[in-house]
Amino acid sequence: MTPLISTQWLAKHLNDANVRVVDTRWYLLQPTKGETDYASAHIPNAIYLHVDRDLAAPPLPDAKTGRHPLPDADAFAETMVRAGISGETRVIAYDDAGGANAARLWWLLRYFGHENVSLLDGGLTQWIVEGRPLTAEIPKFPRGDFHARANPNMVITKAEMTGLLRNSRVLILDARAPERYRGETEPIDVRAGHIPGAISAPLAGNLISTNDLRFRNPTELRARFEALGANDASEIIAYCGSGVNAAQEIFALELADFDRARLYAASFSEWSRDADLPIATGRAPY
Predict the structure, then answer these.
(1) Span 4-150: which CATH code?
(2) Which residues are known catalytic residues?
(3) 105 partner at 20 to 30 Å CA-CA among 12, 78, 84, 119?
(4) Which of 63-67, 76-80, 160-164 has the lowest mean pLDDT?
(5) 237 Cβ neighbours under 8 A, 6+ residues apart
(6) What are the b/e assignments for 160-193, b being 16+ CB within 10 Å?
(7) Under 8 Å CB-to-CB from 59, ≥6 apart: which residues?
(8) 20: part of which helix (H) or strand (E)?
(9) Which of 19-28, 62-71, 82-91, 181-190 has the lowest mean pLDDT?
(10) What is the pTM of this model?
């Protein structure tokens, strides 16, 4: 199944019974804005899933977990059932941020065993540029029949990460903005900088431009990740602030035919909260 679908394809299949379109707009410092914007205008027949409420578990109160823990299988299955998603449903996820949030749903579905999921290339931004219709009507679908089983091989824990810091064969990609990687600014986490050894690979670099939020073609993406050291890596790990945006990095890696990447799901929000763990600043990995 094609992991990336065009606006043209979606326009033709909006009313297919086995297609479920999901709006995942979400903003780090304005967590209610995406849902409000969805209520005002969205792609017809699209439902809304919230990153905090639907695509993550509540953070634990010990101040050492990430901001967006992975939901457990039962909770995620119930979210999918309420969304009208079943085992045979084709899910199309979109946002307005180059897949930065939509890829979280793409990754979670695959993590829980549902491969029939794609991202809308260019997302809502491309849809609007092409003058395609929007609506404020919120669709209703019958409950789905969804069963979830997590694949632990797709994730890496903090304990495992600490054992890989000086492993030259492991490529750790930091998907955050360059200024956060360098430690020049940190809008939400307790310490600034990056995990020692990580390479800066901002997710914006996977897109055509700041004005065209479609993904670069596989050849260009392959060249990008090769330049970052992917060819020589025995393993690739992606992280971001809380494990949401890094899923877009893994999505781009798969478009480039690097399909062995794992997600550090708790990401820098967990790492930075542990005072015993080192943090690097500046442009260099260490």
Answers:
(1) 3.40.250.10
(2) 240
(3) 12
(4) 63-67
(5) 156, 161, 164, 170, 171, 172, 173, 261, 262, 263, 264
(6) ebeebbeeeebbbbbbbbeebbbeeebeebeebb
(7) 65, 66, 67, 68, 69
(8) strand 19-23
(9) 62-71
(10) 0.97
What is residue 97's DSSP assignment? S
- Paired with 90 in beta bridges are 19
Integer-rounded Cα Rg, in Å, for the chain is 18
Q: Classify residue 152 by its DSSP letter.
A: G
Among the four given CATH numbers 3.30.1490.20, 3.30.565.10, 3.40.250.10, 3.40.50.1360, the one describing domain 153-271: 3.40.250.10
Q: Are 243 and 66 in contact (CB under 8 A)?
A: yes
Q: Which of 193, 186, 150, 173 minimizes the C-alpha distance to 249? A: 173
pLDDT score at 60: 77
Q: Give CA–CA dist 14/206, Å, rounded.
A: 27
Taking Cα atoms as reference points, which of 235, 224, 261 lies closest to residue 167? Answer: 235
Give the phi and the psi of residue 151 in degrees, each rounded to 5. Answer: -110, 100
